Structures are given as structure tokens and as C-alpha cells.
Amino acid sequence: MRQLSKADKAVFIINDSGELIHADEQARTLISETDVAERLSAVAEGFSSVLLSSGCAEVPYSVTCRHIQENGIRVIIFEDVCGRSELIRLASIGSIMPSIAHEMRNPLTGISVLLDDIHDRLTGKEDERRLIRMSIAEIERLERMLNDALVYSGGGSSVMFDENIGDILSEVLMLNHKLCTVNRIEVHGDISPDIPEILADGGKLRQAFHNLIINAVEAMPGGGNLTLSAYVSDGKINIHIKDTGYGIAEEKLHMIFEPFFTDKSEGSGIGLSVVREIIRMHGGEISVRSEIGKGTDFCITLNI
Ligand SMILES: Nc1ncnc2c1ncn2[C@@H]1O[C@H](COP(=O)(O)OP(=O)(O)OP(=O)(O)O)[C@@H](O)[C@H]1O
Ligand SMILES: [Mg+2]
Questions:
Q1: Cβ-contact 169, 127 below 8 angstroms
Q2: Is the CB of 30 under 6 A from ligand 1?
Q3: Which atom of ligand 1 is least distant from the CA of 216?
Q4: Nearest CA to ligand 1 atom 17
Q5: Which fold does the domain 9-80 belong to in CATH?
């Protein structure tokens, strides 16, 4: 059975024995001749809504059934409500997301600071300190998911200032230095001092670089090399985030920027879609080159 295109209607007319006596063009594409009588009879028995299978998923349609004559002829109208309800759902997520993110971030930061303090007081108790570091890492993961969800839902404001991209990259690299050391990853920075300032949302770019670095770290479970380089070429700022991890298969490359694509058991799959969104909002571009077993190189270009 085929799915109606969004906001479409399909009209069927059946007689008192449930036989189809008329189907408009949309109706004919929706339902195959073989199962039409059985399904329409069930609908006409008084359901106000029904789930029709559209091949792989069940799709909700609103159904109106009118008895137009005493002789039992019924007009049944199917209307796809899936598209409409999805839009309403997305709009409401977008509007409440900034306040949820704000309310959640403050207590998370508070917990992080307290744990950090306890960590420093536990001198000589390496096992306990390790557990606290793990807890802090989990809180950071929550914060990252929250920030990603905020960008993904279209919420949150953008604040553009003159920013030095080289400084932002060095800062993000420094913040992730410990994570890399723990994972036996050697970090190399090759950031040209000639990169001019550009108008950018520093917070969002930090988030994008951070997501790429985390992906690189996750791609090197046995350790490796992470190289961040930035330089000016052809009037653009070029940024490379390169790892020597397990790489991405060619057939997967076109999917990795799609929301919810993930091959990690604990991944949400929105990290790279958020990176792409952030780069796009800066008028830039992102591309990727990868080789299985050798590593991956994400390249970002930003206009000067
Ligand atoms: N550096 C990389 N090396 C190998 N595979 C990668 C790399 N970066 C991304 N990928 C692939 O792209 C997929 C999507 O990445 P993305 O960051 O969007 O989601 P995720 O890392 O799976 O989850 P999360 O939303 O928590 O970041 C990953 O699951 C992985 O398969
Ligand atoms: Mg990721």
C-alpha cells in the first residue's frame, strides 16, 4: 500500500456490501484493488481514525465516513494527518528547547564543579578519583547532547562577534587534551598565526570543533594521532580535523551528516548534523575524506 503525499486527501465510495464503486486518483494510488473492500468495510464500521500500513511503517490517517443515501452508499475520505502533526510537534520542541536547555545546564554545571572539588580533595585515592572523572565525563556528554539538541531543534540565539578561529581551535584542543592523553592519542596542532578574525558565533564553532574531536577520539579506541590544522588558502580559512582511526566505509560517507545516523551503541547520531548546521550558518562548507583502517579527515572552509 502506498502512502498519501502530505496534506493529500483520497476519496472512496463503497456500496452497502463494502464493494468499491468509485475511487479518485489519490485513492487509487493509496490502496491496491485486492484489499480495498476488506479494509474499507472495516473503516466504514465506525472507526473515526485508522492506521494504514504504508509498506514499512504504520501511518495515521484521519478518516471521515458519510452515509449519503438510505441505500447504504458511503463516501469515505482519508486525510493524511501525519505531516501536520509532525510539523506541530517540531514547532513545539523548537520553542521549548531553549528554556529546557537553560534550566538543565545550570544544575549540570553545579554538579560538575562540586565533583571537581571532591576529586581534588581525594588525594591518594586514585580509584575514587577515577570514578569521579568518569562521572564528570558523563555530565560533559549530557551537556554536549543538550547543546546539540538546541541547535538541532533550531532554538537558541546566535551571537556574532569578530573571532579568531585559530584561538578557538587551540582552546578546544587544550580542553580535550586530557581526554586524548587518557585515550593514548597524540595531539598535533598546526595552526597558522596569519588567520584573520571573522564574524562568527564562537560558542557554536567551539561546539562544532568539539563534536569533530570527540568523533575522532571515539574512532581511535586503541590510540592514535589527532591533527588539527588551520591555514588561509584561496581567500578562505581551511580547517582540518584529522585522525588515524578506523575510518568510514565509502558507502556510509553520504549518510554521516544525516540526523540520527549512527553506528555507535550509545550515539544519538546528531553530532555531525549539528556540525554541518553550524558551519552552514557561518556560510561555510564541510567535507570529509576517509579510508578504512587509515583514518578520517574533516575539512571545513570559512569565508574571510
Ligand atoms: N572521525 C570519524 N571516524 C570514523 N567514523 C566517524 C567519524 N566521525 C563520524 N563518524 C561516523 O559518523 C557517524 C555519525 O556521527 P555523529 O557525530 O553524527 O553521531 P555519533 O557520533 O554516532 O553520535 P553523537 O550524536 O553522540 O555524536 C558515527 O556514528 C560514525 O559512524
Ligand atoms: Mg559524534
A1: no
A2: no
A3: 1
A4: 271
A5: Beta-Lactamase (3.30.450)
Identify the residue whose C-alpha is closest to ligand 1 atom 7. Answer: 215
- What is the CATH T-level fold of the domain 161-303, as seen in this structure? Heat Shock Protein 90 (3.30.565)
Nearest CA to ligand 1 atom 5: 248
Q: Does the fold of domain 161-303 match that of domain 9-80?
A: no
Looking at the CA of 298, which ligand is closest?
Answer: 1
| Ligand 1 atom, smallest distance to 257 CA | 18
Across 214-223, average pLDDT: 96
Give the amino acid at 190.
D
- 185 CB under 6 A from ligand 1? no
- pLDDT of 5-51, one tens digit each? 444 567 777 777 777 778 777 777 666 544 555 566 555 544 334 43
Q: 125 CB less than 6 Å from ligand 1? A: no
Residue that is written with C-alpha cell 588561509 in the block = 232
Nearest residue (CA) to ligand 1, atom 1: 216
pLDDT tens-digit readout, 117-172:
999 999 889 999 999 988 998 898 888 888 888 787 766 667 788 999 999 999 99
Secondary structure of 207-276 in the HEC alphabet?
A: HHHHHHHHHHHHCCCCCEEEEEEEEEECCEEEEEEEECCCCCCHHHCCCCCCCCCCCCCCCCCCHHHHHH
Q: Where are the domains of the chain?
A: 9-80, 93-152, 161-303
